[in-house]
Amino acid sequence: MAQQKKLVEEITSMNEDFAKWYTDVVKKAELIDYSSVRGCMIIRPYGYAIWENIQKDLDARFKQTGHENVYMPMFIPESLLQKEKDHVDGFAPEVAWVTHGGKEKLTERLCVRPTSETLFCDHYANIIQSYRDLPKLYNQWCSVVRWEKTTRPFLRSVEFLWQEGHTMHETKEQAEQETLQMLDVYADFCKESLAMPVLKGQKTDKEKFAGAVSTYTIEAMMHDGVALQSGTSHYFGDGFAKAFNITFTGRDNKLAFPHQTSWGVSTRLIGGIIMTHGDDSGLVLPPAVAPVQVVIIPIAQHKEGVLEKANGLFERLRAQFRVKLDDRDNSPGWKFSEHEMKGVPLRIELGPKDIENNQCVVVRRDNREKTIVSLDNLESAVSEALKAVHDGLYERALKNREDRTYTAKDFDEFVKISNEKNGFIKAMWCGETECEEKIKDVTGVKSRCIPFEEEQISDKCVCCGKPAKSMVFWGKQY
Amino acid sequence: MAQQKKLVEEITSMNEDFAKWYTDVVKKAELIDYSSVRGCMIIRPYGYAIWENIQKDLDARFKQTGHENVYMPMFIPESLLQKEKDHVDGFAPEVAWVTHGGKEKLTERLCVRPTSETLFCDHYANIIQSYRDLPKLYNQWCSVVRWEKTTRPFLRSVEFLWQEGHTMHETKEQAEQETLQMLDVYADFCKESLAMPVLKGQKTDKEKFAGAVSTYTIEAMMHDGVALQSGTSHYFGDGFAKAFNITFTGRDNKLAFPHQTSWGVSTRLIGGIIMTHGDDSGLVLPPAVAPVQVVIIPIAQHKEGVLEKANGLFERLRAQFRVKLDDRDNSPGWKFSEHEMKGVPLRIELGPKDIENNQCVVVRRDNREKTIVSLDNLESAVSEALKAVHDGLYERALKNREDRTYTAKDFDEFVKISNEKNGFIKAMWCGETECEEKIKDVTGVKSRCIPFEEEQISDKCVCCGKPAKSMVFWGKQY
Q1: Which of A124, B200, B263, B433 could anchor a disulfide with B182, C-beta 3.0 to 4.6 Å?
Q2: Predicted local confidence at residue A240, as pLDDT
Q3: What ipTM does the predicted assembly reach?
């Protein structure tokens, strides 16, 4: 296997240098290329095809839950961004400013949207008059810009692709329900389509979104023990509605402010897939979003009948799966390595002997398990093997998270774990930002979330020893 | 009918004020809303759903012809934009400039992409080495910005959504073939999905794209006799390749420059749909891209069994069509007008008497023809009626174009027609830009294209009387 790998292109091993392994994989699996624009990536066909599959899947889930897509301008006038104070404080330091159109200086600067709450609110003020206009359940697929200093492909870039849902509701309860519903949609998608287990929980006040009343998050555990915030869902109360003067006539005939949510996931999920499932041979893709689910590699393809039969399998499988026939001139070993690098979930090998025996060899990318399959029931065997890959990936990722989840009862233990290990640390917290900041200052570790499923580890805050309010997952983050 | 219309919202009549009719329709059919950003529109759910249908259809056509989607950065460094001289001259006057990131002034200005030739070339220089890497057939769906002074929804806006294909080829012939193939894809799409007849032809040198060797266009005729350039396809030769130093080792083992194309259509197509098919009751949508193809309106819905039966039809039809059941409290007449305003191709009326007779009434939006249909073969009747609407729209649009196409043999005739009529003027041309400019200065009319199917109207240029080289379609344009 090691030899075959070298036939294609070497990548750094994970254990040697995880960060280097990551950038090797994104480049050599041809997911991205660097561009001439600092911090902006080029998403290449193979990477973009993963995003298209993510989009298609999520978009169907959004539509099933009653959401409609819209498109808002990519620019926000400075005065509009400033309407909600917490929001502008959070975002103004990291936006790109357009100051000139053609040869003329603009009378008001425009920022390139870092997120679109302000634009949606401006529109909602125009179109919401009565409770009959509610709820408004809008979503937008677009790119956004945040002027980050340090960037990494998919994980943190100046421009990235995402979706942003923005909804307005008659009551607080309905808006809160929407916030949690969309968090569930994200968590289900991560489990069912990305084979990525996530923790669901609430952000502390310190870590919540600029302008939100409460922020919920899904947190995933990467292979190296570093956490990835993979999606967030925010409840805003009526703060933006008041700032933007969005009112509606209620069932009681009185004017009221609607309650708001927003929620988003981005191309960062692709980074999550890479760091959750990848290995030293490259990418490992969950079948639901893999651009190629099955690659057919003919063995001794110059021999009579091999290519013809391989093509027959291709035609059979393409009706149900995303399948590719690799009939290029390179050696089978070279092809094996290339498609392993690209994370194709299943490989089918078909040679003269297989044809003689009316069979083929099916090889799983995740654990390299080989199975001899009769050509008579190829479709069902492929279908089962894809499901097995998905389940195998999920189980392995869950085990990684469990292995990397530690419990700290007091501050010394917390410091010791954070010095020695990467992973989640479960610990009790009094609810004070002061303790959260002290933990970060001493250990470099931030709160990830207050999980929906809390445990009673002790009754004291791990930092100050005062009575604990919540259990918190802490961890280093991408 | 006039009475019903007033039940919803009045729109200006086409003949009274076509421009006002257009803006009334885009607003009242809820396609767009104006935003706080000058010249940028908000595409509302109903408008965006049309765009999603256009995207889905075209994207499948692009993939069938071997193209792959990618995503390039939205910013172009000023130095990159300047690499190809004609291109920068064409675009620099109308770009938005980002000069600050956060609180810092950038060392180099970035423009928001007006089109992405320069970014694709920069990337192609990295990834093309050998003839084996060719062709590269990439496409991108994104938004672009052009700092237009005068804007109109869908037709000309500061930001718009589009796709831009950018391809690289081993030979001139292959690139030229691609250029024409994509023009055909656009023309077929306009005919088959938008019911919009288009002329295919080549732009004159004066009207071609900045930096192109040749530009091909599809030109549609709007209801008011004004032409709409609906899509373009460009052949670049190796000019950009030379400017960006993109080379490949050819089959002869020598270094060569690849040949390039680009092609695009935009949300402007939605403007084309509105002005090709719309009428005084509002929008008329071609079935292939209509968000709702069939609306079911129960008559006397309070009567026993009506809503239940209507819901049964809805469940039957939704398996094959995009269908909506309008069971709101408003009167049927009010609903008729609203769905006419929104251009829904077919309406199904179902009342107690219809139910008694196992029938329903199917009404076409384009000509308001009513047919009584047995519920036994509803699906096939709806399918046929949708096809009939499509064909009816196409025939009507073609007739409009034919009625509005005039022939001018000499300059006086040309001036007379252009003063009295809106439409295409067919006339011979010597090939000199001087004559093209004189025609524009005197009549305000520009060349639309040299059509692929030329006629020999005379042997003299309509302007200077010297020997003619080509027949040209001329016309006022959006």
Answers
A1: B263
A2: 96
A3: 0.95
